[in-house]
């Protein structure tokens, strides 16, 4: 493999503690190295910014929902298509780009690892087919557990070993990465057209509450010692006043210590917190509770969050929270797709136009940024747009700009049609904090890598780590106009993925050598779970057990993380 | 001695049964018996295993109408040359093959600026358009089995088209919340004919052929409690419409399955718009889903792979160097009628039998290749016929069921010696196309 | 004997499926699909015996098939030909800008043609494409 030396760039790396000092970064055999030979190709990064490849902890980029979104929104392709290139397939789409575009655009922005946020186990093979067709970036996928009948029954009977054995089996069977929980209990209730909007609403028939589900899965996650913590989208998403449900959910994890060998410190990751930080009791008095939620996170160091920033675009919402999407279609009257999945989950899709002229949308925009600005620990606060729910991932550079520049935020606030009402319902106008480049690196590299249990592999520039390195044409000390930030982060000067140069001069030059991350947790043999699985497939699934597992050839280049949970 | 393969996937219809048991001879060459399959599925396995009447090498059409055997290499060369030299080739079919082959085919299409279309063009294409119009509240077939107490078959006759659908998922099975099976369910069938499916129904609405839209909108009105005018609506007495509306609303979990009766009749996508909106309306009262009765076992998969690679589910025109989609214009039927394409590549479908004859005649005038294990009307009028191994019998690969659930099909027996699979043939064409394009 | 006008639909039957998988070149396929199912009352109008060959004509073409009694009836005024090249000799290629031909709801006439032969699928399609028509 080639050797490279990236010379004289301003390097930012929380892993090694470099905060913008001029330094060289060496790449050898796909890894970061101490030094390279004289044959190494030299990249001159003078006056530019150098950091590790970014890690996206939560995006909907592959699988049945995403593809239904693509197929049912031909309009999303308008004016977006790029023809076939020398090294690239033709690619298009805006909020739900094709798999090729997904890979290329992430890479161009300097993102090299992405976690698909919700994999319905029954559709796992589809998720992996798409991941396989997404070039360059390493990806994993989180199977959903929060509405799974096996989990309900074992938890209700307080059979923690069985929960663990089932989780381990499902991760292996679906080639999944960790435990995703979406609207615990509520998505099952949606099977009957109902919902759970607080942590204490019992799930119809199953006689278990969302709080019990979260607590149980959290306990199982730590008992198994998985690299990632439970990854939760709590109940009551998107509704005025829901911050109380959010805080009630977070409380479940209070004081619990993480147990794992991957350097992960949190026991709960709450995703797209923007959608869960709403006050008021109607759309009329709808207001930000970002401060309350962020302060809770600041105090409780065993939790992480990602923002889910609204970018004020026309986009496509999609979630395993089926009842929410039904609620949304009744609000905006746009086309509604829904898929309930036997024994496992529900899901829905609705296009959405976040219009800056609509008060609620502008308030949502402010809440996402407030969360990022109130957060005291950037290593526990990650930038996302819950792609494509609050906006497409291709807007990350814009979100970074807003977080780094008070000026750009104030201009936005002033420009809104309902500017005064938005300012009154939020705190953003008074928040003049501007995140530093180092903090942005913590929020997009070191932080999410650590939360995923991958701090020794991704998101840093210590020797021995994977050589995912990005050079941006930007100098933090010389930014005159906030637009420079967005421009620079939109397309890197060059990007290395595992030591291969995949982007040069802002364009994709190689399809890299993408890998699929999954977790193989070893647990003691468990005959009861084996029998239960056999029985449920025989009686209630529409597929036989022997056709359920995702075969290895759908994961042609795996990166398996083994966990000994015996 | 014999060998038994279990959990075999049936590569016939969109029901994609995955519980077949196939017994083969000891060498895994001949299929001796097939259990659990419907009559059609069993015939597919048994017929493929009888090699005596199979064409096992490519063949080229001669002036006198006869065929002359050629090698696979010659067939690859002909196909690659045809696609590279055409200005706007059509690559049609993709529904009776696996996703892996579709993916290779798409790469060829991208390089050659082809029009890629699957059999939705003459099947559920209008459904896909309707979903783009109004969305689709749906669920997996296991949800139906476990929860549904109201089942509607609209313009669909599963007793004939999807023979095991009713026993596996919809009418008869006992699921988690449906322990009494059929007794717990009310069945409504909407069909202009009395069919073998309607004979199982609690209510048969014998709609006047072509008036589905009217009946659907009448049901929507009735569900909302609005007054209907006229005694007979779309051939159905008004009282029966009210009765059906009440039956739909009073259920706990309902599903509408619909087929060609609505997609191909006048009104087309508008019929399905109305059916989907009825489903959406019903969610204000109870839980309701709607599922298309997809035909070919992997037509759904073709839509999926096209979706993630190009963003559109069928009728994708790549001839301008980027993907365009407008089924009324880029659909295969339309481009044939307009004589707009100058080469025809068919794989995993038989347009010769299933297109209106005017379009079949157009195909017969073009440079053409048909990839198909069977002898079909298409292979009989194409310039080159390339027989291949049967997907789901002689080679595995991924397929998508009508509810979009992916299931990997299995290889049960060896193909006749020396035969290529779809994927192998396509990979040969792709390699050759790349070489030709490089020059 | 007379010519009648009737509404044609096409669609699947289990015999169509089985015989198709058994080989479209076979007589079995022709027997399963080279037919038209019509109602008792329509036979009376037509004035022929069941299982007689008839000529089916539409604006889009014509074909010889065997008239049999409706297997899934009654459906007076509606005729049924299983999906296949016989049906498609007369179905409408009109898509009304949807891309979907009109396989169901095609006005046709049926007239007795007891001396004419039903072709098998290969002969039929080849004669349509390359015959004298």
TrEMBL record, chain A:
Recorded protein name is Formylmethanofuran dehydrogenase subunit A
PANTHER family of this UniProt entry? COLLAPSIN RESPONSE MEDIATOR PROTEIN, HYDRANTOINASE/DIHYDROPYRIMIDINASE FAMILY MEMBER
Among Pfam families, the record links this protein to:
Amidohydro_3
Source organism lineage? Archaea, Methanobacteriati, Methanobacteriota, Stenosarchaea group, Methanomicrobia
MF terms (GO), sorted A to Z: hydrolase activity, acting on carbon-nitrogen (but not peptide) bonds
The residue ranges of the Amidohydrolase domain are 41-502
Q: Which NCBIfam families does the entry link to?
A: one_C_dehyd_A
Q: Which InterPro entries did the record assign?
A: Amidohydro_3, Formylmethanofuran_DH_asu, Metal-dep_hydrolase_composite, Metal_Hydrolase, Metallo-dep_Hydrolases_sf
From TrEMBL, chain B:
Query: What region holds the Molybdopterin oxidoreductase domain?
Result: 54-416
Cellular component annotations (GO), alphabetically ordered:
membrane
Instruction: Tell me which CDD domains the record gives.
Output: MopB_FmdB-FwdB
Q: Does the keyword Transcription apply?
A: no
Which GO biological process entries does UniProt record here? methanogenesis; respiratory electron transport chain
InterPro entries per record:
Formylmethanofuran_DH_bsu, Mopterin_OxRdtase, Prok_molybdopt-oxidoreductase
Give the SUPFAM superfamilies listed for this entry.
Answer: Formate dehydrogenase/DMSO reductase, domains 1-3
What are the protein's UniProt keywords? Oxidoreductase
**GO molecular function annotations of the record:** formylmethanofuran dehydrogenase activity; NADH dehydrogenase activity
Query: From which domain of life does this come?
Result: Archaea
* Matches recorded under NCBIfam families: one_C_dehyd_B
Would you tell me the protein name for this molecule?
Formylmethanofuran dehydrogenase subunit B
UniProtKB/TrEMBL annotation, chain C:
Q: Which residues cross the membrane?
A: none
Q: List the residue ranges forming a coiled coil, or say none.
A: none
Record SUPFAM superfamilies = ADC-like (SSF50692)
Tell me where in this chain the Molybdopterin dinucleotide-binding domain is found: 7-107
- Pfam families assigned to the protein according to its UniProt record, in alphabetical order: Molydop_binding
Molecular functions per Gene Ontology: molybdopterin cofactor binding; oxidoreductase activity
Instruction: Give the InterPro entries listed for this entry.
Output: Asp_de-COase-like_dom_sf, Formylmethanofuran_DH_dsu, MoPterin_dinucl-bd_dom
Q: Which Gene3D superfamilies match?
A: 2.40.40.20
| Domain of life assignment | Archaea
Q: What is this protein called?
A: Molybdopterin dinucleotide-binding protein
Q: Which organism is it from?
A: Methanospirillum stamsii
Please spell out the taxonomic lineage of the organism that makes this protein.
Archaea, Methanobacteriati, Methanobacteriota, Stenosarchaea group, Methanomicrobia
